[in-house]
Each structure stands twice: as C-alpha cells, then as structure tokens.
Amino acid sequence: MRRRPGFSVRLKLTLSYAGFLGVAGALLLAVVWVFLLRYVPDNSQGLLGVAPNRYLLVRTFAPAAAVAMVSLLVFGLVGGWILAGRMLAPLHQIRTAARTAGTGSLSHRIRMKGRQDEFRELSDTFDSMLDQLESHVVEQQRFAANASHELRTPLAISRTLLDVARKDPTRDRGELIERLQAVNTRAIDLTEALLLLSRGDSGNFTRESVDLSLIAEEAAETLLPVAEQRTITLDVTGGEARTSGSMELLLRMVTNLVQNAVVHNLPTGGTVTIHTEIQGDSSVLRVENTGRPLPPELVPTLTEPFQRGTERVRTDEHAGVGLGLAIVHSIVRAHDGTLDLVPRNDGGLLATVRFPLMPPRVN
C-alpha cells in the first residue's frame, strides 16, 4: 500500500517536546505578568517613590524573557531530537528485523537487551512470532518435499509398468491391470489423506455437537472385520462424552487411532480398548493397544507426516502412507484438543485425546 510521504515519528516527537517547552515558558511568563508586574504602579514615582515603575520593569524584563524563550525552544529541539532518537532506537531494531523477515530470511532475531518495557515486550513477541513462523515454514517445506516424493513413487511405478507392457505385448494383462490398480489405489489414498490433513490444518469446517462414544462404536464396528482377521479383541467401554466439532473429521480421527492400534499390535491374540468418559471440563477418548515395546524416543516422531515408525511391529504387510497419526494430530489441534501418546510398560501404545466438553442440551 503506497502512502503519501509525511514527517518521521522522531521529528514529530522533537516538535512535540519543543512545543511543550515553549508552552511551559509562555505560561511561566504569563504567571509573572499576572501575579507580579500587574501590581507594580505605572507612574513616574514607581512603588513608594523608590522602586522602578511598570514601564521600566517591562523594558528590562522583556529582552531577557525573549532570550529565555528562544533558548527553551532551541533546547527543546536539540534535546528532543536526541531524546526521541534514543527512545525510538529499539523501534528501528524491530523495523530492521521485520524488513529482513520480509525478504524471506526468518532466522534473524532481535533479542533486545535491557529491562522489560513496552519495546522489549514487543521485541520478544516479534521474536516468538518469527520462531513459530520459521517452524511452520520449515514444516511445510518438509511436508511438501515428502508429499512430492510419496506421490512420485506410485506414478513412477505406473510408468514403469506401462513401459514394460508396451515393450512386452505378450505380458499377462490381468497381472498388469491388477498391479496398476493397486498402485493407483495407493496414490488415491495418499491424495485423500493429504487433502484431509490440509482441511484439518485449516480448521475450516462446520461445528456441531458430537458424542465421542457413538463415534467410537462406529469406528470399532467398521474395523471389527480387520481386527477379527488378525485375532485381535476390540472393546469399546465408557459413556457419553460430548464435544463440538465436525462429525466427519472426528470419525476419521477415531478410525485412524483404532486402525493404528490394530495394525501395530501383537501378531495374534492382541487387544484394543477404546474408552470414552468425561473428566472435569474435558471429553476424553483413550485408545489403548497391546504390542511390542515401543522406544520412548520414537513417540514424538509418530505424529510427523510420513513417519511410518519403522521400528514398530506390524501384524501384516500393511503399508501405510505415514499420515495416520499426523491426520489425528491435525484434527485434534483443529478442535482445540490435545493428543498424548505414551508407550505402555507391557508393550503397545496408549493414545489419549482431550476435547473441550460440550454440556448436553436441556430440553
């Protein structure tokens, strides 16, 4: 946005300081006139015949007052310019940092020294904003690079299969079509996961009253055949736990948690428990599963996009896209909730999700 040029803040402050000194000097002279000179007799004898009259006092006092006023103005301009410069020096540091950030360099920090005041508070807030912005940009760049890599893989496989089929017309077309369908399905699943993750990050959805216990039952019913195929016991316990959010996104969140618990479980005879309850002013959902011991240092990486947790044990050859828990984390944040992942002592993982409680409607 282009603006017309104007006076600098330093010049405005300088003129303000000088103006205040000028007004103060004028008021002082007015006080002298009102409370002193006006009571001096204006005759040739003066006061009691020995003191000078008002005319002589005014002629003597006026030049000195004029010199004093000019000195006040000069002192106000010079001192105000220096004082304004010192006061605005921190603002120049913030402006320099903002311009540096505007060029794309987000690593610069102000780190203003001195005691806490309004400028230091503004500086610390700006540094905090740059920290979050730099972290977000780095995360988005890493996500874009990983997404490009993941999407390029199925496309490259498809091109290779088509090249082989073109060079070898005698190749079994049924096998080719089946492999192409599998690769295409994986690419579609990945694309849908990326779109869902983007939607969760944006927080652009309609909120409604949602009961987590009903969502847990629906997710368990959907994944029950998968659990039975792996001889995993799937239990849903607890009671009503209402919150405000998107039914579709919350269902995907619970489904991803349960699917993750089923996939990363014991080879046979494992268990998955889904529990909902109200704790204080929060609606709580817990998904707990058995499995092999999970290294604690691996837990923080589980919610990062495309981190498949290669050290975790799967019960089959399920090849996810590494976005399951990343989508869960994104949906939880978009609903103002928290996600805690804690490895169990006996193996497996305990995932706890907390959302703000929505009281039931009173009819």
Task: Describe the protein in words.
By secondary structure, the chain is α+β, with helices and mostly antiparallel strands. The strands form two sheets. A five-stranded mixed sheet has the order 2-4-5-7-6, covered by helices on one side. Strands 1-3 form a two-stranded antiparallel sheet. Helix 1 runs antiparallel to helix 2, helix 4 (173-202) packs parallel to helix 7 and helix 5 (212-229) runs parallel beside helix 6 (247-263). Mean pLDDT is 80; it is low at 309-319. The chain has seven helices and seven strands.
Offer a few descriptive terms.
two-stranded antiparallel sheet, alpha+beta, 56% helix, 7 strands, elongated, single chain, 5-stranded mixed sheet, 7 helices, 363 residues
Major β-sheet profile: 5 strands, mixed
Shape: elongated
Number of beta-strand segments:
7
Radius of gyration: 37 Å
- Quickly give the structural class: alpha+beta
- How do the SSEs run, as a string of H and E? HHHHEHEEHEEHEE
Straight-line distance between termini: 53 Å
Tell me the fraction of residues in β-strands, as a range. 5-15%
Let me know the average pLDDT: 80
Please bin the fraction of helical residues: 55-70%
SS field, number of helical segments: 7
Strand order of the largest sheet: 2-4-5-7-6
> Which parts are unreliable, with pLDDT below 50 for 5 consecutive residues or more?
309-319
